[in-house]
Amino acid sequence: MSDALVDCTSGQYIQNVREKLGLGRTEFANLLGLNSTGERTVRGWETGEHKPTVRKINDIKALESFLKEQQTNAPFYCEKGEFTFIDLFAGIGGIRLPFQNEGGKCVFTSEWDKFAQKTYLANYGDMPHGDITKIPSKQIPNHDVLLGGFPCQAFSQAGLKQGFNDTRGTLFFDIQRILVEKRPKAFLLENVKQLRGHDKGRTLNTILSILTGCNANIDVEDLSINDEAKMALSEKLNYHVEYKVLRAADFGIPQNRERIYIVGFDKDYFGSDVKFSDFFEWPEPTCQPTRVGDILEDINTYDEDKFTISDKLWSGHQKRKEEHKQKGNGFGYSLFDEESEYTNTISARYYKDGSEILIDQTSLNKNPRKLTPRECARLQGFPEEFIVDAVSQGQIYKQFGNSVCMTVVKELAKNLVKAIRKLETRY
Question: What is residue 427's predicted lDDT score, i.e. its pLDDT?
């Protein structure tokens, strides 16, 4: 039945629009500006429990043209490519763009945070699907490469280091079930460096054993994962897997950010006898000199001084640093200037007080300041065209703190895609 013949206040019409746009109920609700119970509201509309207001009906009618407009205006919208990939735990697309630039087409994205979805939509013209744990693997398109910067809080130095005992840590098993169902030719996963030593190395060894197909002794009943993920663990993958810790400062970015990257190639597809080291090489650090001044903006171009921290906050920072110093440790704020070689790692908590990266303004007779959103983008290797004002300043700080250094991923993408092409044509 065509939409024209369906009452535009009916559940059928609303469902038709949503499905035509390829949206889940949560993403549909987010685009309509509904609150945290938006998914339930949309379900109620579609089942006929209640009807939307006239204003919401108008918003629903305008949704298709709105999304087309987003694609038109998005600086990194991509319509076609030589190979396909999916972007899981996508954040704001820090892993996506380098693979897109290597000729890839993203055919599926998952990101549950509605603010990150907004930044992603503004830049790529694609509205990410939501919570991956609620999306069956069969509904995900076939793809050549799986990309996933799976949540790192469960393993990070800043977090509680609970690993698989933390529900965020179990999200790795959603990657595993998708690999089982879709069998992409290759994958790239990213996490914090601390994953390598978490639980004396046992967490990483478990991940590697699953990816290579040696997962014989995993008790699924102890894991807080969905039934599909539990069933998938009975299936054996067969990937050649390597991992390495790479540092942003070694690739021309003035940030001391270290992350572990895990790459895999499907031995069932390429052949178990392949010597993958003949095809894939880890990128060599460029070791070019770095300088914090290279990512700084002229702060005078801003109409108001909204990045300089207050007297109260600066006093608090100084007090805490002195207290830590007296205890014999080096905790507290970190101050940098134009000539600093690199900054600390920017984190998702940067929006709170900026303590890990403050820029010295002594020469201006001012308190230190936070980085601007554009400086955060540069510190993570994002291009100048990347839109940094689709959400509030606090949210964009969180997003860049959670993101990857795109410059490092750029080199990885180049080498991984090159390896796939060489493997495909080796005979």
Answer: 63
Strand 104-109 relative to strand 83-88, pairing: parallel
Task: Give span(s): CATH 1.10.260, the chain.
Answer: 3-71
Asked whether the beta carbons of 280 and 419 are under 8 A apart, the reply is yes
**Intervals of CATH 3.90.120.10 along the chain:** 292-389
Instruction: Tell me the Ramachandran region of residue 278: left when phi exceeds 0, alpha when psi lies from -120 to 50, beta otherwise.
Output: alpha
**Inter-CA distances, 79 with 89, 390, 402, Å:** 21, 22, 27
Predicted TM-score (pTM) of the model is: 0.91
Strands 258-266 and 83-88: unpaired
Phi (first) and psi of residue 242, to 5 degrees: -135, 155
Which residue in this structure is represented by tokens 């014989």? 216
CB atoms within 10 A of CB 146: 23
| Domain at 292-389: CATH code | 3.90.120.10
Tell me how crowded residue 297 is: count the other CB atoms within 10 A of its CB. Answer: 14
Q: What is the pLDDT of residue 216?
A: 58
- H or E segment and range at residue 106: strand 104-109
3-71 is classed CATH 1.10.260? yes
Catalytic residue positions?
152
**Per-residue confidence band for 169, with pLDDT thresholds at 50, 70 and 90:** low
CATH 3.40.50.150, the chain: domain bounds: 78-283+405-424
For residue 384, give both structure tokens. Answer: 């100048």
pLDDT value, residue 343: 97
Q: Which residues partner with 241 through β-bridges? A: 264
Is residue 154 over pLDDT 60?
no
Residue 11 and residue 48 in contact, taking contact as beta carbons nearer than 8 Å = yes
> What's the CA gap between 183 and 144, in Å, rounded?
8
* DSSP β-ladder status, 239-247 and 258-266: antiparallel
Question: According to CATH, what is the number of the domain 78-283+405-424?
Answer: 3.40.50.150
Of 101, 171, 183, the closest CA to residue 142 belongs to 183
By the 10 Å C-beta count (0-12 exposed, 13-18 middle, 19+ buried), 384 is classed as: exposed
